[in-house]
Specification:
The protein has 161 residues and is of the alpha+beta class. It has five helices and three strands; from the N terminus they run βββααααα. A three-stranded antiparallel beta sheet has the order 1-2-3. Strand 1 and strand 2 form a beta hairpin.
Length: 161
């Protein structure tokens, strides 16, 4: 028996960065996953913030809208697609080649890394089931340079976005 889903909840907080203050949101989805996401730069001056900047009230409104979408089940990443990691990787390669117009050599490099490293580890796994912990456990087993491991982690995170 599965535990009952809890309503999504969260809060916003400000972090002072070297380039200026930034608003973040930390929230929990009905399935129990906890997520922290950058909302955007904080507006600390008087008056209406320029486009792209958030006051505390604006960051809270952003979070409320996100939590409302989570309650309705329309938040991207919440819907179970049935797609495997292999399906997502193939779609990602199509996207970077056709939509993003990457050079053939770049696409070949991505395809090679995906086929050699990622598909053997995650190929048949449902894309929603691949967690950060899975990726971290996998990367610990990858031989090669730090660059190879970093590229592998980056590519592993792309298909499931």
């Amino acid at each position: 028996m599965q535990p009952a889903a809890r309503p999504p909840s969260g809060h916003v907080f400000r972090v002072d960065r070297s380039r200026g203050p930034v608003w973040y949101a930390k929230y929990r989805l009905p399935d129990g996953r906890q997520i922290q996401r950058k909302v955007g730069p904080a507006w600390t001056e008087r008056g209406r913030p320029p486009a792209g900047y958030f006051t505390k009230r604006g960051a809270e409104a952003w979070l409320r809208e996100l939590l409302d979408r989570a309650r309705r089940g329309t938040l991207p990443g919440m819907v179970r697609t049935g797609a495997t990691f292999s399906d997502a990787a193939a779609e990602y390669l199509r996207y970077i080649e056709h939509d993003r117009g990457r050079k053939p050599s770049t696409v070949r490099g991505y395809r090679s890394a995906i086929e050699a490293h990622l598909l053997p580890a995650f190929g048949g796994t449902p894309v929603e089931a691949v967690t950060t912990e899975d990726i971290e456990r996998w990367i610990a087993t990858v031989a090669g340079s730090a660059r190879t491991r970093k590229k592998g982690v980056w590519l592993a995170r792309q298909p499931g976005r």
